[in-house]
C-alpha cells in the first residue's frame, strides 16, 4: 500500500514521504521501488539531520553482520539517486568521508480515520532541519550561537539564570565566575538564548582561546561578526565599524586567557559601541566599570549521608545526576538495541520522573548521595559520573549495582590521592577524579584515541578527527577489531565518546562539529603528555593540517567566514606554536606557506607576517644553518607584504633576499619565482626600463638552465615597486 498507516510516524521532504516500520518511500502518492538496504541507508542519512554520515556508519546500518567495502555503499547510493530522479542532488557526497542529506525535513504522524481530512502530515512536531546552500553574502552575517546537542535538562540554576536575566536590563556586561565545571558556559548560553529577541543584530559567541594572541582579541570579535574589510584596516577599527550602530549581545568565553587583556578589549568595545552588551565567563571578575558579577557555586548537595527517597528530588545535585543518566539511557536506546538493564528507562525524562515520584530504591539513593557529596556537587563531575554508571549498565549491571560500585571506586580513588605523598591537590578535585574513573574503564586503544582528540584546540570536524586517529593508528588485537579498517574504527570511537558525553556534537549553521569541553581537554592533554606520546601525536596533528586546509579551500571560493575556517585557524595557531617549540622548523614553514589563503580570507595577514618573522628569528638564531627554510620564509613574507600596504622598496628588498638565498641554495624554482616577482613590481610601478633589464636576466636564466644568472639583486635596490600583489608561484 502506498499510504501510511494511521498514527504511523512519517518523515517528509520535498515531494516524498518516508516511513520506518517497515521502510517505505512514496513520491506524490506513488510508491518508489527500492530495496531494503537502500531504504535503510536513506533512513540513516535523513536521521542524521544534515550531519555528514561516514561510509563506515552506512556499512553498519545497511549490512550489520557483514564486512563490505566502500564500493558496495556507493552502489546503493547510486541506486537511491536514480530512484530520486530530478531530486538526486538531495544526497550530497562529502569527499573522503561519506554522504549527507541536504533537504528540509519534517516529521509527523499520519492522520487517523476520525481526524478531519487534510494534508498527509500533521504540523511538524520538531523544527525543520535545513541545510542552507553556501552562498556569498553582501552584508555581514554573524556566527550563530552554537549550543551542543543532547544536553541534560536545565537543572539547579534557575536562581542564577533569573539573576542574569534581571541584570541584563541594567548592566552592559555581566561576568559569570566560578570553579571549573560549575556550568558557567551553560548559564551564559541559556541566558543568551532567552535574551535573543532583544538583540536584532545577533547573539554572537566569541571564544578567546589560549592560542589567540593578545593583540588578536579584536580580530576574534570581528571574525565572530564575519567582518572582512580591506586587509590594511586596523583590527579594532574594523570591529568598531561593524558594531557601532548594531544591537549585539556577545557571549564571551575567556576562561582560557588572562582576564586583564580581555577586560581591556571589552571595555574599549563597550565605550565605542553604545548598543553592545556582553555576557562573559571567566575565572575571576574583569574589574570593569558597571560590571555585574554572578558567582556560580556547586549544586545543592545533601548534608546527611542518608536521604529518604521522598526528599531526594529536592537536591539539585541528585536531580542532575539522574537527569544525565536518563539522557544517556535514552540516547543509547535510540542508537543501539537497549540492554535489559535499561529496559525500564527508555525516555530521557523517565528516570528523573521516577526520582520525583519517590520510586527510586533507597540503596540507589544512598549511593547517589555519596557520589554527589564526594564530587562536591560540581555539575561537570556529576555528568562524568553518570557516563561511567551508564557504561556499567550497558555492560549488563543493574542501576543499583552500577551506582553502588561507582560510589565505592570513587571513594577509594579520592582516599588514595589524598594519602599519597607528592600528588597535587588539584588531581583530587571533582572533575579530574571523575574523568580518571571514566577513562579507566576504557581499553588501552580507546583511551589513546580519547587522549589524541585533546590535540584539537576547539571545535573540529568529524573527518579531521578520523584523519588524526587513523594517522596515529595503533596495532590492534583481534578482540579489539583488528579486521576493522582504521576509518571505521575511528568513526565508531567517536560515536562511543559522543554517547558517553565525553565529546559534544554541535550544529554550526548546518556544519556539524565536535568539541571536547575545555576542562576535559586540558586534563586529557596532560595525560597525553604524561604518557610520552604528546610530541608524536602533535606531529601527526600538525602534519595533517596542510591537507585539511587544502581540502577546505576546495569547498569553493567562498567569501563568507564559516566554522571550518575558524576551526582551521585555532588548530593552525596551536600547531605552529608546537612546531617552533619542538624545533620542527621545516613543518612550521610548510604550515605558514599552505595557510596563506586562510590568513587572507580572515583578514589576518598582519598575524601571518608576525608569525613568519618570529619563526624566521628563531631559525636564524639556531645553531644549525637552515638556508632553504630561511628562503621559503622570506618568500612567505615577501608575498604578504603588499597586502598590508608595505612601501615598494621594502617589498623589493624582501624579494631580493629570496633571490640571494635561492642562489645560495642553487634553487632554480625560487630563483625564478623571485625574479618574476621583481619584474611584476617594476611593471606595475611603470618602470619599463628596469622591468626590461630584469626580463632579460630571466630569459638568460631560462637559456642557462641551472647556471646562476649574472643579475645582481643590489642593482634593483633602487627600482621602484608597488604595493600591489606580487605574482604568486
TrEMBL record:
Q: Which residues bind DNA?
A: 8-103
Q: Which SMART domains match?
A: Trans_reg_C
Q: Which UniProt keywords apply?
A: DNA-binding
Protein name in UniProt? DNA-binding winged helix-turn-helix (WHTH) domain-containing protein
Which positions, given as ranges, span the membrane? none
Q: Which InterPro entries match?
A: OmpR/PhoB-type_DNA-bd, P-loop_NTPase, Sig_transdc_resp-reg_C-effctor, WH-like_DNA-bd_sf
Does the record's keyword annotation contain DNA-binding?
Answer: yes
Q: Name one GO molecular function term.
A: DNA binding
> Which regions are flagged for Pro residues bias?
121-131
Amino acid at each position: 500500500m502506498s499510504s501510511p498507516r494511521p498514527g504511523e510516524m512519517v518523515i517528509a521532504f520535498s515531494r516524498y514521504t518516508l516511513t520506518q516500520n517497515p521502510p517505505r518511500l512514496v513520491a506524490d502518492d506513488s510508491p518508489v521501488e527500492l530495496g531494503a538496504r537502500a531504504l535503510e541507508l536513506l533512513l540513516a542519512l535523513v536521521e542524521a539531520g544534515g550531519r555528514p554520515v561516514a561510509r563506515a556508519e552506512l556499512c553498519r546500518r545497511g549490512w550489520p553482520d557483514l564486512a563490505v567495502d566502500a564500493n558496495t555503499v556507493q552502489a546503493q547510493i547510486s541506486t537511491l539517486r536514480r530512484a530520486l530522479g530530478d531530486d538526486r542532488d538531495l544526497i550530497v557526497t562529502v569527499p573522503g568521508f561519506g554522504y549527507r542529506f541536504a533537504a528540509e525535513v519534517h516529521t509527523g504522524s499520519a492522520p487517523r480515520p476520525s481526524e478531519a481530512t487534510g494534508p498527509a502530515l500533521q504540523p511538524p512536531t520538531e523544527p525543520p532541519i535545513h541545510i542552507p546552500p553556501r552562498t556569498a553574502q553582501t552584508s555581514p552575517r554573524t556566527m550563530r550561537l552554537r549550543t551542543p546537542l543532547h544536553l541534560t535538562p536545565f537543572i539547579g540554576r534557575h536562581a542564577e539564570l533569573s539573576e542574569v536575566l534581571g541584570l541584563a536590563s541594567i548592566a552592559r556586561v555581566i561576568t559569570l565566575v566560578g570553579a571549573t565545571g560549575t556550568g558557567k558556559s551553560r548559564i551564559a548560553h541559556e541566558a543568551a538564548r532567552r535574551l535573543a529577541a532583544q538583540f536584532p543584530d545577533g547573539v554572537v559567541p566569541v571564544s578567546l582561546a589560549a592560542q589567540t594572541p593578545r593583540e588578536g582579541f579584536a580580530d576574534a570579535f570581528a571574525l565572530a561578526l564575519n567582518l572582512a574589510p580591506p586587509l590594511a584596516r586596523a583590527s579594532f577599527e574594523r570591529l568598531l565599524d561593524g558594531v557601532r550602530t548594531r544591537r549585539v549581545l556577545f557571549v564571551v568565553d575567556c576562561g582560557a586567557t588572562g582576564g586583564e587583556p580581555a577586560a581591556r578589549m571589552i571595555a574599549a568595545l563597550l565605550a565605542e559601541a553604545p548598543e553592545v552588551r556582553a555576557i562573559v565567563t571567566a575565572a575571576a571578575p574583569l574589574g570593569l566599570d558597571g560590571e555585574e558579577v554572578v558567582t556560580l557555586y556547586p549544586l545543592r548537595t545533601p548534608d546527611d549521608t542518608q536521604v529518604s527517597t521522598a526528599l531526594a528530588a529536592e537536591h539539585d545535585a541528585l536531580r542532575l545526576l539522574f537527569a544525565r543518566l536518563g539522557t544517556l539511557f535514552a540516547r543509547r536506546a535510540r542508537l543501539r538495541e537497549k540492554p535489559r538493564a535499561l529496559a525500564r528507562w527508555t525516555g530521557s525524562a523517565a528516570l528523573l520522573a521516577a526520582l520525583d515520584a519517590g520510586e527510586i530504591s533507597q540503596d540507589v539513593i544512598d549511593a547517589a548521595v555519596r557520589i554527589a557529596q564526594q564530587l562536591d556537587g560540581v555539575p561537570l563531575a556529576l555528568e562524568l559520573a553518570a557516563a561511567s554508571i551508564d557504561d556499567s549498565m550497558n555492560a549488563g549491571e543493574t542501576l543499583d549495582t552500577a551506582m553502588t560500585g561507582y560510589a565505592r571506586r570513587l571513594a577509594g580513588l579520592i582516599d588514595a590521592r589524598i594519602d599519597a605523598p607528592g600528588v597535587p591537590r588539584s588531581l583530587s578535585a571533582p572533575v579530574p577524579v571523575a574523568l580518571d574513573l571514566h577513562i579507566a574503564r576504557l581499553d588501552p586503544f580507546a583511551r589513546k584515541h580519547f587522549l589524541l582528540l585533546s590535540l584539537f584546540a576547539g571545535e573540529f570536524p568529524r573527518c579531521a578527527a578520523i584523519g588524526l586517529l587513523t594517522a596515529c593508528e595503533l596495532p590492534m588485537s583481534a578482540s579489539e577489531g583488528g579486521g576493522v579498517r582504521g576509518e571505521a574504527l575511528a568513526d565508531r570511537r567517536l560515536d562511543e565518546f559522543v554517547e558517553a558525553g565525553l565529546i559534544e556534537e554541535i550544529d554550526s549553521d548546518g556544519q556539524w562539529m565536535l568539541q571536547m569541553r575545555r576542562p576535559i581537554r586540558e586534563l586529557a592533554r596532560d595525560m597525553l603528555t604524561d604518557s610520552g606520546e604528546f610530541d608524536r601525536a602533535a606531529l601527526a596533528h600538525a602534519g595533517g593540517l596542510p591537507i585539511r586546509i587544502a581540502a577546505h579551500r576546495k569547498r569553493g571560493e567562498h567569501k563568507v567566514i564559516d566554522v571550518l575556517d575558524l576551526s582551521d585557524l585555532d588548530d593552525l595557531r596551536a600547531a605552529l606554536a608546537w612546531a617552533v617549540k619542538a624545533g620542527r622548523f621545516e613543518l612550521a614553514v610548510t604550515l605558514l606557506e599552505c595557510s596563506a589563503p586562510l590568513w587572507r580570507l580572515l583578514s589576518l595577514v598582519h598575524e601571518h607576517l608576525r608569525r613568519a618573522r618570529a619563526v624566521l628569528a628563531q631559525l636564524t638564531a639556531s645553531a644549525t644553518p637552515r638556508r632553504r627554510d630561511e628562503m621559503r620564509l622570506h618568500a612567505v613574507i615577501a608575498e604578504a607584504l603588499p597586502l598590508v600596504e608595505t612601501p615598494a622598496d621594502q617589498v623589493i628588498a624582501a624579494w631580493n633576499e629570496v633571490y640571494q638565498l635561492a642562489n645560495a641554495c642553487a634553487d632554480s624554482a625560487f630563483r625564478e619565482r623571485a625574479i618574476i616577482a621583481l619584474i611584476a613590481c617594476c611593471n606595475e610601478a611603470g618602470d619599463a626600463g628596469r622591468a626590461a633589464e630584469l626580463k632579460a636576466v630571466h630569459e638568460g636564466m631560462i637559456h642557462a638552465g641551472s647556471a646562476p644568472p649574472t643579475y645582481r639583486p643590489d642593482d634593483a635596490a633602487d627600482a621602484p615597486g608597488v604595493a600591489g600583489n606580487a605574482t604568486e608561484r
